[in-house]
Known about the structure:
Keywords: Glycoprotein, Ion channel, Ion transport, Ligand-gated ion channel, Membrane, Receptor, Transmembrane, Transmembrane helix, Transport. This protein is an alpha+beta fold. It has six helices and eleven strands. 8% of the residues are buried.
Amino acid sequence: MKTKAIEEKLVMRDDRWILVFKDFDMKNFNKSLSKAAVTYITIEEESCCLLLSLEYSCVCPENIQVLQSFYNIILKSLAETFSRLDSLGKVFDTTFDCNTSDSDGKMAVYNKDFLTAFKDVINSRSIIGFDSVSRHVFINFKYNVALGDVKNRVGKWSVDKGLVLENSYIVKPVKRFFRVGVAESVPWSYKVRNHENLVLKDKSGNEIWDGYCLDFLKRLAKEMKFTYELVPNESFGVREPNGVWTGLIGDLATGVNK
Length: 258
């Protein structure tokens, strides 16, 4: 996926990428993949300590297995739940057959007691949470949200509070982006050449285009607040005997630029 994104130059567009790290191995990520402004969402170090039941100021060990640690907490929570029920004398000692109904209601009562005790145990552990509607247990990580560099934090995100931005950060809307097909047709659109008839290129190595249509496109982009890149083609296109279009029309028809 990274290779494809680089080939298509998607990583060169500011604010187009949001990278979410599901582990604590951010330091080994190759940030040279992108030269644009990328949003990084990383798990706070504090969450690692809570996941391992360590002090807040712990140093998160390398190669921590997030899911395995999560499962360990769930197993401990289940064990504590059954222990609480046992201490209250609420022990389910009746054999239950899935093919028969709960005629005496014992299973329903035990289910209610179990869920109540289980939620209490879960709520006592800040690193995990319980969704009463779906009855799912989830990891209650806290995330840092940074722009451009992991040190440039612009906010935090958590399940209970959602996204909380830094007071100094101003959210700017991401401009729309378009790929604009272009072919030479003087004076509407043409490649800029020097006195030796060589096509001039910009600092990024892209051919420089000019003409009435290009001026109009630049003005549209400014007024309508969008960015674009030119997709050159040798011709506007003709329809082949087999019904397939070539050139720009072919690009529009297939969505592929050859």
